[in-house]
Amino acid sequence: MKITFLGAAHEVTGSCTLLEANGKNILIDCGLEQGIDIYENCEIPVAACDIDAVCLTHAHIDHSGKIPALVAEGFKGEIYSTLATRKLCNIMLRDSAHIQEFEAEWRNRKAKRAGQGEYVPLYTLQDAENALKLFKHYDYNEPTEIFDGVRITFIDAGHLLGSASILFEITEGEKTERIIFSGDLGNTNRPLINDSSNPPVADYVVVESTYGDRTHGARPDYTAQLTEILQETFDRGGNVVIPSFAVGRTQEMLYLIRNIKEQGLVKNHANFAVYVDSPLAVEATNIYSSGLTDYYDSETLDLLEQGIDPIRFNGLKLSVTSDDSKMINFDESPKVILSASGMCEAGRIRHHLKHNLWRSDSTILFVGYQSEGTVGRKLVDGETTVKLFGEEINVKARIATLQGISGHADRDMMLDWLSHTKSTVKTVFVNHGDDSVCDIFAADIETKLGIKAIAPFSGDKYDLMTGECLEKGRIVRIEKRSEGRHRADTVFARLYAAGQRLLSVINKNKESSNKEIAKFADQITALCDKYDK
Question: What is the pTM of this model?
Answer without folding.
Answer: 0.84
